[in-house]
C-alpha cells in the first residue's frame, strides 16, 4: 500500500508519502490563494525528494491521494463562493411556522436563500407515513425553482433518518424537471433533529458549485504532478470518501483537518486510546481518541453561525499556539496570534511582537531566526511563559478527559514544543516523529466508514444492534470499503422516553480499508 | 388590571430560565423561542399579569405540549396548533378565555402559553401548576388541590382533535390523554382543564414566568461579562450550590414510557474526592452525595453546564461534561403531605422521607 496524504492548512500545505505503513517522505509548502497550486507545489516537492521513484527510476504506483481541506468550511465562515439554494421541505402541515432558514444569521440567509417550498410528506417516529408525499406539489415547486434559475436544491423531510423514501422520491421528481440539479437530501447527513439536519443539507447544497470546481481542480493538480492515482477527500470522522461521493457532500469535510491530526497522532504513536493535543500557529485543539478515532460531538455544532447536527469531532479549541502573542507583565499568552506572519513579525525574526516561538528560541528549545535578538529573555522569564502555556494546556486536556485516571497525551503540530513532558492528569506525554505533519499522515491512512442511526421498535437490544450493524456495513461497502476488513468502532443505544413498544435509538458506525481498485 | 409587556429580550431569557427550571426534562425551549421570535417580528406582543389581577370568575386556559421531546424536534412546535387547542376548548365549552397560563414552567412548556396569548390577544398569567417540569399530569398543584381533571383538548397539526370529556381523577386524565398523544405520533398540543380566576389564585404556583426570566437574564448577563453564571443564578434565587464535578457515568433505560437512569459525578474544586449520583425519571429526582441523600423532589435539582450556566438535560447529558448542581426550593404546595403524595420521593418509587435542602 502506498498513499499520499495532503493537508491544506491555513498556513502550510503538508504532504507525506506512506509506504507499507511507514512515513517515507514529508514536505511542507505554503498554502496558496487558490489552494490547488499549493497542492501541486507540495506534490512536486514530494516528487523532488525522490521517494516517488523506484531504484530503477520508474514512477512507483500510488494507490491514492487523500486530501484534507478547510476550503469548504472557510467558504461558509467567510461567506464566499456560495450558491443560492432552493429549500424543499416535506412535512406539511407540520413545522409551517418555522420554515427552512428560519434560524440562520441574516447575512448568510440573504446570500444562500434562493427560495423556500414546503409540501405535504414525511414520516412518524415509528415509520408510519406522517402524510402522503404530495408529488404534484413537489413538481410544481421544481418548476418554480427552474423558473427562478435555481440549480442547488436542499430537500428535507420529517423523520427522514428513519425513512428517507419521501426525500429520495422528491429528488427524482426535482431531477426530472431540472436535470442538472445538484440535490442534497438531508437523510444523507443523518441525525434526528429536523432544523439542524436541514441546515446541514442547505449548507451542503450552497457548496455545490464550489465543491464541483474544487474537486475538479484537485484532480487536475494530481494529474499535472504526473501521479496516476485516484483522489479521496478526508471526512470529519477520520475516514475518506471517493472524490465522486465527496463532491456530493462537502460538509462532511468541514472539520477534517483536526480529525486528521488526531488520527495521524494515533498512527504515529501506535496508541488507539489517548488524548491528543494539536498545537498549531494560532490555536490548540484537544480531543480524545477512542479505538483510533476522535470522539464525536453528539450535539449541535454551529458552523458560520448556523446550528447543524451531523458527524463532527468533539474538539476543544483554545487560543494557544506557536505564534501566540506573549505579554510579560502581567503574564499572558494568546489568544491573538501573528499566524503566518511569524517569520516577519516575531522578535527572533526581526519583528516587534513577542511570541511563544521567540521564547522557545530564547530558551534554546527551537533553533529558528536569530537567537541574539531574544537574548534579553532570561531563563526565569522563559520558564514562567512555559509554565503558563502548560497550565492552559493542562486545563484544556482536563476538560476533554472522560475518565478519572491519568491518560496518555500525544502532542503534535508545529507548536508541540509548548507541551511539557510532565502534566497533571497525564500518565505520559508522547512526542512523535513527523508530529508536525500528523494531519497529512492522518489523511494518508484514512479508512472508509458506514453509519446507521435510527429507531428500532419491538426488538431486543441485541437484535436492534445487529440490524443497525448490517445497515452500517452495507453503507460502508457502498462507499468503497472492503467488506472483509469492516469492524465496528462505535455502538450506542438509547431507550426513548414516552415512545411505546420498547423503542430504542441505535447508532452504529463501522470502518474498513479502502477496497483495492480493479 | 396591572400588566407589563414581555419584551423580546425577556423571551430570550425566559427560554434559558425555563430550561433550567425544567430540572433536566421538559424539552429544550429553543423551538418555542423561535416561534415567539416569528410572532414578535409580525408585531404581536404579550402582556404578563399577576394571578391577583384575575377576577374570580375569569376563564383561564392552561396550555401544555405533551409527548416525546425527540418527536418534537422533527415535528416542530407550531404556535398555531397550540392556539387551536385553546380555541377548540373555547368552542367546546362555549366560553371565551380571558387569559392563558402554562401547566409547567420548566422546558418548552414554559414558553408555549406566550404563543397562544400572542395569537388570541389575551394576557399570560405569571403562574403555572408545577413550578418546574414533571413527567405526569397528576404532578401538579391543581391535582394536589383536587380540582376538576377535565375536560382536556388534544390537538394534532393534521386536524386531529379530541376532547377528554370526563375522567374521575388526574391519573385517569394522564392515562387517557397519553394514549391519544401516542396515536398522534407522540406529540400533541393540549389545552388542559380550564381554571377560574379564583382557582388560579388559590392553587397556582405564582411568579414563575418572572422567576424564569430573572434566572435566564442572570445567566445571559454573566455569559456576556464572563462572570460565573451559577453564582449569578444564586444571586437572584434563594438556591443552594450542592456540587461541582464531572460526569463519569450515564446509565439510561426506558421503562413504562419514561426515561429513567442514573448519572454519576466525580467532584472537582471543593468537592474533590466526593461522589454524587443523581437518579432521574425524565427529570432529576434524587441526588445523593457519597451515598447520602443530598436533595430530592419536590426541591428542584438543576444540573448546569459549569461554563455556560445553561441547563443540561437528562436526554443529552454525557460523559465528561463539567456540571454544577444547584437546588432551588420546591413550591410550598408540594411540601404539604398531600403535595408530597403527588411528587415526593415515594411518588417516584424511592423509600425516602422528604427532607428539604432548605430545612433549617
From TrEMBL, chain A:
Residues 3-176 form the Hydantoinase/oxoprolinase N-terminal domain. InterPro entries: ATPase_NBD, Hydant_A_N, Hydantoinase_A, Oxoprolinase-like. Residues 197-390 form the Hydantoinase A/oxoprolinase domain. It holds the Pfam family Hydant_A_N. It comes from the Bacteria. This is Hydantoinase/oxoprolinase family protein. It comes from Reyranella aquatilis.
UniProtKB/TrEMBL annotation, chain B:
InterPro entries: S-Me-THD-like_C, S-Me-THD_C_sf, S-Me-THD_N, S-Me-THD_N_sf. This is DUF917 domain-containing protein. It comes from the Bacteria. Residues 9-165 form the S-Me-THD N-terminal domain. Residues 170-357 form the S-Me-THD-like C-terminal domain.
